[in-house]
Amino acid sequence: MPEGDTVYLVGKRFERALAGKTLLRGQFRVPQLATVDLAGRDVLGVGTVGKHLFTRFSGDLTLHSHLMMDGMWDVYAAGAKWRRPGHHARVVLTAADVQVIGFRVHDLKLVPTAKEHDLVAHLGPDLLDPQWTEEHAARAAAALAADPARELGLALLDQRVLAGVGNLYKCEICFLLGVTPWTPVSEVDAETTVALSRKLLLANAASGRFDQSTTGHLDRNRKNWVYDRTRQGCFRCGGPTLVRTQGHDVQRRPTWFCPKCQSGPAPAS
Fold first, then answer.
1. Its family (predicted)?
2. Is the pLDDT of residue 250 over 80?
3. What is the pTM of this model?
């Protein structure tokens, strides 16, 4: 599933393409919205909350969408050939000079703009919220610390605790804290963990790049400390990086860590 900063950048690209323009075509290719036509509506903007996107139209109307594992909003010049199969298109938004296509996007809902919050009220504070305050940080830290026996990696992925962290950041945050993802939440400082999570997502959102770096390097083999480094080893110490599964059922994720640089429990191979 995309990280929060990826969704944020997708939203910004979408907004640059369509905000302020009038739709000539607004077609849905899903049964529940197949009869809806957005033609004639102005696109007011696109916002994100965690991994949720909200496209706002004139007439007090908002389209909610979620990328899940395989969704994407692509931008094309008017009349350009799509890079993805047409049968994967779920939403087609066309203005005079541009098309924005939602391929395999999920959880599509049209709601009054004033009701957007109802769809994300269950989420924790959004780490990329432009209105972030100390109150947001305190709420996120309290939610993280609320279950002290919970595995840190699972808590970080819980969007009800804080919204935006995906599997890559989960692994990298735990590395930078010096603990394994199976370490109980009680073993880390909640405020420090929230601040670090926000710092990493903000840095990559500000960069405008879709290939996240947590080390500050852009080279493919130097971007991350442990995530997906089974072959290269730990970027800090050079020792072997191990990968184990964390979570169950739909929450199962491959999880990388360095047994030398990170202390705490970990499953046997």
1. Belongs to the FPG family.
2. no
3. 0.93
Judged against a pLDDT cut of 80, whether residue 269 lies above it is answered with: no
d(CA 258, CA 227): 10
- Output the pLDDT for position 2: 82
How large is the average pLDDT for residues 106-129? 96
Which one of 150, 170, 253, 267 is the catalytic residue?
253
| Residue-level pLDDT at 55 | 98
Whether residue 184 lies in the annotated active site: no
CA atoms of 130 and 49, how far apart (whole Å): 10
Instruction: Examine the residue annotation and report whether 254 is marked as an active-site residue of this protein.
Output: no
Does the active-site annotation cover 253? yes
Cα–Cα distances in angstroms (integers) from residue 228 to residues 65, 156, 238, 251, 255, in the given order: 28, 18, 14, 18, 8
Q: Is 267 a catalytic residue?
A: no
Q: How far apart are CA 152 and CA 4, in angstroms?
A: 18
CA distance 222 to 216: 8
Separation CA 156–CA 171 (nearest Å): 10
In the set 15, 51, 181, 223, the catalytic residue is 51
Q: Among residues 3, 15, 116, 151, which one is catalytic? A: 3
| Whether the predicted pLDDT of 41 surpasses 70 | yes
Concatenating the DSSP letter of every residue in 26-87 gives EEE-SGGGTT-B-TTPBEEEEEEETTEEEEEETTTEEEEEE-TTT-EEEEEETTPPPSS-GG
Tokens 């191979």 found at: 269
pLDDT of residue 1: 65
Q: What is the rounded (10 degree) CA torsion for 230, 231, 237, 243?
A: 10
Q: What is the pLDDT of residue 210?
A: 86
pLDDT digits (tens, 9 = 90+) for 149-195: 999 999 999 999 999 999 999 999 999 999 999 999 999 999 999 99
